[in-house]
Write the structure tokens for this entry.
Amino acid sequence: MLKRLHKSAPTSSIEQRATLLAGKHITYTLRRCRRRSIGLSIDDRGLIVSVPLRASEKWLQSVLQDKAGWVVEKLEDWNTCQAAANRWQDGESIDYLGELLVLRVEQSLFASPAQRRGRELWVFALNGSEATHIEQSVFHWYRLEAERHFLQRTAHFAPLLNVAPRSVKLSEAKTQWGSCTAQGAIRLHTHLIRLPPRLIDYVVVHELAHLRELNHSPAFWQLVESVCPDYTSLRSELKAVANR
């Protein structure tokens, strides 16, 4: 008995497309595969949209328009991160206290710390201008500047809050700008030194206030507000920075 042969359905297909999202022309890779929902991802290839094999154009466009803001924001973030990853060279810009310094790289036969000269940061590179060496020199300078600035701001705000931290140290925590222990130790993230002084001050005040209120109760926020009246707007601004 002969059986009718069925042509098997394709398991996947890929095509390049373009569309208008949030006022921007976006190219993307459309991948049809065995799945039940539409998924969006962003990497070094750009936007990749994975859809069920028989997903309709109407459904696809609905999801893209619904996620338009997210797509544009994440693509911009990715491009920024890619640029930052390759910027350790002469003439590029680096963040410092909410402003930009021009990075200057000079070949040197001797190890020497980076030096700020007005609106420029000079790095003296050994063994050529390797990006890794330049990056290490910049971050060593960041740490020195962070220690100096954070101690200065802590000394300013501590008397206003009637507290006395046992220590102020730098932190490299991935998810916190600052922390405070019950023993009175304050830790502040090194990368705060890149942000505007107003945001640094807010984080310093926030952690110092925890020396009196180890919680986020109304009493805690009243204490913060007593020396930082616009803390709510600063808090929102800091969250926006963290989500970039």
Observations:
- Residues 12-84 form one domain.
